[in-house]
Amino acid sequence: MREIYMGLVEQVRVKKPLVHHITNYVTVNDCANITLDIGASPIMADALEEAEDIAGIASAVVLNMGTLNERTIPAMITAGRAANETGVPVVFDPVGAGASKLRNETAVRILQEVKISVLRGNISEIRFLAGLHAETKGVDAAEADLQNIEDAISVAKTMAVRSGCVVAITGAVDVVSDGRRCVCIENGHSMLSNLTGTGCMCSSLIGSFCGAAPEAPLEAAVTALLSMGIAGELAFERAGHNGNGSFHAALHDAVSKLDGEILVGRARLYEA
Amino acid sequence: MREIYMGLVEQVRVKKPLVHHITNYVTVNDCANITLDIGASPIMADALEEAEDIAGIASAVVLNMGTLNERTIPAMITAGRAANETGVPVVFDPVGAGASKLRNETAVRILQEVKISVLRGNISEIRFLAGLHAETKGVDAAEADLQNIEDAISVAKTMAVRSGCVVAITGAVDVVSDGRRCVCIENGHSMLSNLTGTGCMCSSLIGSFCGAAPEAPLEAAVTALLSMGIAGELAFERAGHNGNGSFHAALHDAVSKLDGEILVGRARLYEA
Amino acid sequence: MREIYMGLVEQVRVKKPLVHHITNYVTVNDCANITLDIGASPIMADALEEAEDIAGIASAVVLNMGTLNERTIPAMITAGRAANETGVPVVFDPVGAGASKLRNETAVRILQEVKISVLRGNISEIRFLAGLHAETKGVDAAEADLQNIEDAISVAKTMAVRSGCVVAITGAVDVVSDGRRCVCIENGHSMLSNLTGTGCMCSSLIGSFCGAAPEAPLEAAVTALLSMGIAGELAFERAGHNGNGSFHAALHDAVSKLDGEILVGRARLYEA
Predict the structure, then answer these.
(1) Which of A137, A207, C32, C106 could be disulfide-bonded to A142 (CB atoms 3.0-4.6 Å)?
(2) ipTM of the complex in this document
(3) Structural domain boundaries in chain C
(4) What is the distance in angstroms between the Cα of A142 and the nearest Cα belonging to chain C?
(5) CATH 3.40.1190.20 correct for A2-271
């Protein structure tokens, strides 16, 4: 099992999949850089007029609605559908679902009109999309929703069955499920929540690994979250005491230096 | 007096106010990260369709016209008015006022249509908005305007009386006035002007402190500028000799490590 | 000859030219910061309504189509033409030319409607614009195009003659030609391709030097690429072993610390 994750880290560096992002302008630079850190190749392009062309040359598509607007929503739908037609995996990050009518409707519409391979969000966002009661505090998980792992496992499985996609809920413990299997990842560090965009960067890593292994979205998502969690630990060990700025740089350092051996040596995960 | 500023640094970390930004795409990542550094929670959302919803769940709204356009200007007005209705403080950063007709008209329009709690700009921008003669060199203060502190004090007081908002003019010495009182802050470092977005980051910090203490916009603005000034000094001491990139990371480090004791220990300010 | 490049580094710091960018939201923060690092002053403004006003106060205009859209394309044309009318140099970075119909048509349109001083791209992008066979892999040069220096020299000369602009092709060896002369720059480091935006940053540096020496676009482009190449070497020496994040910060450090002496001491270039 661990050999699969180990192998994916090597594969992404060999295959260098092109990952098409339609994403927000807040964290886009970190998303592009973490895609390069892990060994894939990012292309950010959100004009409707080129959504099909770019999705057509990509190995994975990442749709992130962090700063969605009337111009980018149709581009997301078009890019997603174009990817569906050629079997290119689509990762969807429903940033802030629950926080506004526009976000709620857009998230539902994307899930209806595009076949998603991996849906990644925090517990509040995924609870909302699963039709369960959710508190929302902007783009971060509400404290009321940070209950327990059993709850996250149940939400992930329910949503995976209902949506037909792999569901990844990130938090203190990350939970990934395809409806049948469910993997829990204990790696990570609380300092990751001091930086904007660590959720978005997880989605970019999922896109990168999906691009390298489109046939294995569960394993791709797990490997991505392991990578981020372990990089967070390494960044904290080296630079966390300095503060957020040094931690930020050290996080990119750690992802760029990651290899299969580090991943397997530090992975703390179990099936639930 | 200093106990107020000290207390605000503790309060923002306890209350974690949600700060809604409609801001530019140049410095948005730094704005989100400095909001997290100081202990608040950022949400960046500029679609007109969700401006009311997001302003409605926020504790403060920051309007920054750094890269304004026809899509975001109405969103700023709508978010500002929604905040006004529920008494949520609005911070306005008129980036580049004086540099183009579009910026001039938009700044005037926002000041007319939205009740602003704190207006923050450089001396050229605030002189322009006060109807005084101003040189403009893009988004940075013109050298001709960098005259003397007495002038800045006079401009801040005049504009505060005229506009009814707290006016914060940042520069070598920062000046904050509500029309009656006027506080001058001597903290800071010239290297701050080597980085893009240090002005925008000041506005995000003001929004963060206003979110924690909406009843005290003058104190919120002073605490924000003290925080930035002191963080700039600390960043220079630790990393300034390396160059701009290290200074940039060290600035986020310093804000994330700031506490009331550091603030009071290093504050250099006086009333004028 | 080297004295010219050395002098330009001093000149840009004295003249502090205002560089108007209409650029992408992925790398815009790095572009603004590198413009400040080298001593120039950035202004990012992409609204059509202010394109003329801002171009009118700038010393150089940089058009970068990294995340082009229906709103920014007319702004680029308008800003470019306004700059042409007053003799302000225009730098064009045709990011991703060859990757979509929208990019192809926009690049051709800009070259037709705006007089460009310096055109900078990777070998795939410039081959495409020169009407030569090109592979494209998103926004990075395709491996099939990374052939040999002779080829890049030939493409640069051909395109320079055909377009009437200075053409700069960046890669392992950078090539700059005005159709008659051709300068090859061997400085640089492979780690630069691990970061997003190093190409865009080259264009911002070219804009900065063009703003300081509008009469000498070839020399401006060579000085810019020397600056980036040498900064990449210095950043690698100091921080490359840590990984991409530290290298990123060290790159800004190195550009901000660059002076004419370092430039001349480390320059490795020849005319071809």
Answers:
(1) A137
(2) 0.96
(3) 2-271
(4) 29
(5) yes
